Amino acid sequence: MKNNRKDRLQLCNRMISGALALLGVASCSTEAPCEYGTPYCTFGLKGKVTEQEGGTVLEGKRIIIKPANAQTASNHVLREYPDTLLTGKDGTYRWEKQEFSDETEFRIICEDPAGVYAADSTDVKMKPTGGSGWNVGHDEKEVNFTLKKKS
Fold first, then answer.
1. pTM (two decimals)
2. 44: burial class by Cβ within 10 Å (0-12, 13-18, 19+)?
3. Confidence class for position 33, pLDDT limits 50, 70, 90
4. 110-124: b or e for each residue (b if 16 or more CB lie within 10 Å)?
5. Are 73 and 106 spatial neighbours (Cβ–Cβ below 8 Å)?
6. Which of 45, 61, 149 minimizes the C-alpha distance to 107?
7. Which of 58, 66, 47 lies closest to 117 in space, CA to CA?
């Protein structure tokens, strides 16, 4: 008798599971597809570093990209660890990063590792557009630096 009851319960569970699966599939609409993930966007910065006197391009200058406001930086990996890159032979740099925030302000610092030129910095506010779904969009800015020789 116990085996018969157990078989009936298993059959009933299978029937209920099947009905729920069918109802779950039928309840999805094509208007709003289900998405799992986190909204993200892509930020890009590019520019050129030149000398103030003569306008010659400067190779090997350090570009540091970090958050402009440390108060809002605590929950983002990029903001906790600033990115550093060097300018190429033509004095240009290019940086691109995906971030979980859709509006961000970066501080870009240009330094001379050799110490011949004085450092310069600027803040850039970025607001990505043109995305769909979890991709909020893309924003790219051009930031050029003109460095002065130290006295």
1. 0.68
2. middle
3. low
4. bbbeeeebebbeeeb
5. no
6. 45
7. 58
Q: What is the mean pLDDT of the chain?
A: 83
Within 13 Å and on the Cβ side, how many CA atoms surround 99? Answer: 29
d(CA 100, CA 102): 7
Q: Which pLDDT value is given to residue 27?
A: 47
> The tokens of 136 are what?
């909020």
* Beta strands 120-126; 104-111: pairing state: antiparallel
- Judge whether 87 and 109 are in contact, CB under 8 Å: no
Position of tokens 């570009």? 63
Give me the long-range contacts of 100-105 (CB less than 8 A, separation at least 24): 100/38, 100/39, 100/40, 100/76, 101/41, 101/76, 102/39, 102/41, 102/127, 102/128, 102/136, 102/137, 103/127, 103/128, 104/43, 104/67, 105/67, 105/68, 105/69
